[in-house]
Amino acid sequence: MKTDSFLRGAFVLTAAAIFVKLLGACYRIPFTRMVGSEGIGLYQMAYPLYTTLLALSSAGIPVAVSFLVAERGAVGDRRGARRILWVSLLFLFSTGLLLALFLFLGAPYLAREVLGDPRACYSLAAVAPAVLVISVVSAFRGYFQGWGVMWPTALSEVLEQVIRVATVLLAASALISRGVEFAAAGAAFGAVTGGCAGLLVLVLIFGRFERSRPLLNGRGRSGFLLGDGLKLLKRLLIYAFPISAASAVFPLMQAIDTVIIPNRLQAAGFSVQEATSLFGQLAGMAGTIVYLPAVFTVSVAMSLVPHLAAAVSRGGLLDVRRRIGAALRITVIFCLPAAAGLCVLATPIMELLFDEPGAGPVTAWLAPAALFAGLQQTTAGALQGIGNTWLPVVNLLAGCLVKIACNYYLTVIPGFGIKGAALGSSLGFFLVFLLNFWFLSLFTGYRLQPNCLLRPLLAATIMVAALPGIYNLFYHLGNAAATGAAVLGGAALYFAVLFLTGEIRVYEVRRILKR
């Protein structure tokens, strides 16, 4: 089993993430028709508690495992890498089991007192075992990522989602005659069956992976004392905790936005209904589209961490800088046209997707965040890869303060309104990226190459100039046809310019995709 290259691993994870998201969006149509709004409500009630407990159990652990495994692998210590897996498995199994029991046994109370609908207890109890299963799955995923092998994670994610969706539809159809609460519970159990399928395939791959790399030349002692395990666990938690803290910042900011933005819009003179509608345009429409490139940049960051950790362990500072440069280059290539295209086509895209052209202006103001959020994620992954896990959290909090200030002050300025909140998001991500990049330069000596920006900027400028013409050319066929033609034509033109200028070469694409 060959180790995947950094960029190939990122593309594999991205392809899997796109498939999972598309399948996750598509199954809701037949499921909602099957159980109705009441059934989908009971089904959705279980997931905030489930995801919260899952985050408490395992958030940050896969990245921590991949970092520590990459360290051991870089010096040829396969036995040490395997010890990290066993320690993480034991820890995650213990915490996952405790939290799963808490959710299962506390389901009646939580449904009645927290969710306000006693019928939700069936969904809570049905999804509870998934906390344990997915916690264990995350350890195996982190182990493979630590060796730079991304396809087991991608395969398990795809299989998990396929089995989950199949369970949702089959269980809901089989149980709907007993009531919507039982249909919703059967659907919620899909997280368990999907997790078990993902775990099974990871265990099978793990057996093959370890047989292909025997420990004959493994370094380190063959024994494993309790003290060694506790030291490993301490390192694991020290590394995972700031990553978990960073993952909690975004849900916290969403909660703060929900409180600040509508209230400030009302203070600016908007009615309650108008403020709620404007907030929906920002959070529910513009944000959904603008942050789509994050699917790719999250994969880049995830793939980057173990490669940088291995390079640091080998003392290869030149290799560290090369990989950071490659990650930033690929982030700019994919996120820049998304930001530029959304600025120009914001109104047609909002009309096409949500039948709400009024959301176009706020989308255009938020569009730069597509680039800056991607750069923030990539640079945060790079900092984590070189062992600085707390800096991304501190920098992210600084960006959040900028966002809060913009939410509070700009939304009440006449002419700004909800656009001020969108601008705050863009400025916040831009500040976080600048801080992350400054620290990366300080610790690694990396300097941004002009070609990393100039040729993509040229391609994006040509694309932006051509988009209105392409849209108007097809407008007589309707907004949907004109928007689709503009998006496809603009993308084709952008990448054609990159090929012509030599920013992307055919042999590079073949090398990335070649197995």
Question: Which labels suit this protein?
Answer:
515 residues, single chain, mainly alpha
SSE topology sketch:
Layout: H1 6-26, H2 28-58, H3 61-74, H4 78-105, H5 107-114, H6 121-146, H7 151-175, H8 180-188, H9 190-211, H10 226-267, H11 272-290, H12 294-313, H13 317-354, H14 360-366, H15 368-385, H16 390-409, H17 418-444, H18 451-474, H19 479-501, H20 506-513
Provide structural commentary.
By secondary structure, the chain is mainly α. It folds into two domains: 6-216, no CATH class; 246-448, no CATH class. Helices cover 83% and strands 0% of the residues. It is built from 20 helices and no strands. It has helices at residues 6-26, 28-58, 61-74, 78-105, 107-114, 121-146, 151-175, 180-188, 190-211, 226-267, 272-290, 294-313, 317-354, 360-366, 368-385, 390-409, 418-444, 451-474, 479-501, 506-513. Helix 10 (226-267) runs parallel beside helix 16. The N and C termini lie close together (10 Å). The mean pLDDT is 85.
Could you write a compact summary of the structure shown?
The protein has 20 helices and no strands. By secondary structure, it is an all-alpha fold.
